[in-house]
Every structure is written in C-alpha cells, then in structure tokens.
Amino acid sequence: MFVKNAWYVAATAIEVLGKPLARTLLNERVVLFRGADGRAVALEDRCCHRLAPLSLGDVEPGGIRCRYHGLKFDGAGQCVEIPGQDAIPAGMCVRAFPLVERHGLLWIWLGPPALAQADEIVDVHWNGAPGWPTATGYIHYKANYQLIADNLLDFSHLAFVHRTTLANSALVNARPEITSFERGIRLNRVIVDCDPSPLHAMAGQFTGKVDFWNRQAWWLPSVFENWAGSVPTGGEGQAHERAGGLHLRHFSLLTPETERSTHYFWVQPCQFPHDDPGMIERVQTGIDTAFAEDRWIIEAQQEVINASPDIKPKAIRSDAALGRVRFMIEQLLEQERKAAGE
Fold this sequence. Notes:
The chain has helices at 145-153, 158-161, 198-204, 279-307, 320-339; strands at residues 7-12, 21-25, 28-34, 40-44, 58-60, 63-65, 72-73, 79-81, 96-97, 99-102, 105-109, 134-141, 177-181, 184-194, 210-219, 223-232, 246-258, 261-271.
C-alpha cells in the first residue's frame, strides 16, 4: 500500500509539452497533457467507454480525444463530445487528479481531491534558479521506493558503494542528530577537518582538508532534501555560513510506480566557490555515476526480497533514521485505512 494523501512528482514540466504522457503512479494509470492554455492536467488513463488508453489519443483544443471511438474529455475529466450522439450521459467521465506545476515539476495528488493543499508541496525553488546551476536526472528503478528511502537515510553506505564519487570515510562513524517534525524528520551532521569526498573535491576544487556538513530533511512520504557542502577547514563560525564553501541543494523525489518499481526524479542545484561554467556538467556526470552505483545494489536487494519475501532484515545502529521514517509512513497508512473505514 502507498500513502495517497500526499503530493508526488508525476513528471518534469518539460516531459509534458507535446504528445500525451502515460505514467503509472501508485498503481494508477495516469495520462498527462497540456490544454490549449498551456495548463497541464492529469486524468486516469482509460476511456470510460471501452477502457482504451487515453494516452494513445490526440490532444485538441478543449481536451483529449480517444483514438478508439472518438470520445473527447476536457481537463476536468468530463466527456464533452461523443461522435454520432448528441446527448452525453452525466456519468460519462474519467477521474481527474489535482496537478500543480511548480519549480519545473508537475506535482500530483492521488488521494481525495478535497484534501489536496498546494501549500504542502515541498519547496524546490533552487531548481534552475539564478545563481544555482542545476544538474537533474530521472531513474526508473526496479525496486520498492522504501528501499531507495532506506539508502538515502543511511549515509554509512557511502564509503562502500561510492568509492570514487561520494565516499567519505568519516561518515561511517559520524552519527547524525535526528529530530522529528510533523511532516517527517531532520538530520544534521558536521565533520570537521576531514578529506573531501571525490565529488566535493572536484566540484569545490579543494586541495586540502575541509569541514563538511549535511543538513537533511525527509518530507513524508517520499521527498529527500539534502543541503550538503564543504569549506576549507580552520575558519571561524559554522561551516555552512563561511565564505568559500561549496553548496549542494539536493532533492531526491520518489514516486512509487508499483510495489516493485519507482520513478526517481532528482535535482541538484549548486553554488560553487569559483567561476567555472563547465563544472555543472562534471557534477552531472558524478551524480549520474553515484546513482548508478546505488541502483546496482538496491535492485539486487529487491531481487533477493522477491525470492525470499518471508525473511525480514535485522536492524543495526545506523538504521535509526530509516526505521523512524518507516514507522511514520505506517502511521499515515493506518490513518488512511481508518478514514476509508477499512
């Protein structure tokens, strides 16, 4: 089961420009397209007549037309035209989902529309903002989204999985401070006088020791925010406030596709302590490499789980954050079950 009463990224804004986009989100078949006014809309991807996919249809002024028998639906999901038939029955409609375009992303709400509050969408305004060159990416994972969440919430794996990209040997023993808030958890860690990771050394052009920080938030159920950076060691004041630092405002945006697959969107806005316009391309390559390393181990983990579904993992100390998030997600699921009378 998935938490339905939450905003998830359905697509990037540039993915929905011409043809309709079909995407499965939380086991729901959805079609995304733009109307004549440029506004993006999301409907269930099945014509209510003979259940053909609307994503195979044509976008026209006023809606989308099914390619099977020509029924046309507007952005609210209401059938507005049936070829050869003047009267349109009131029940001739498909489900429409709340959709908000913000900061280059299309956010969808798959729960009851009346509960959707756009002010709960996570702030990702750094994405492509002036002064923040941004690397971005999308990964289709053959794994449950919570396995990816576990990976993001436990950085002790960096020294072993990301030896040439994100590895920082000091992270294994640097336990974050973990605090809960209404919509998730926050993690904070600072490591003073350490070797920079290969990615930070490259992006910040550091040649010596650095002070490193991680200021993270996990927004329930599936958005990871990570403000990370490094600055040459030995300065006054808190590391993230000193001049000459590298700032990475990373967001991993997970949208479950099915119980065994996930849409993984990520954005990495950067502020560099130097003026090298080509650096963002090297950061893009570094993050692509690091996330391929994660994908390799997580998809292999999912295969083991598929083969042995009754075997449960055993916890260790570094599982504190992911364990707390899994517990909070289960609480949200229970609230939705009760509200649905289950």
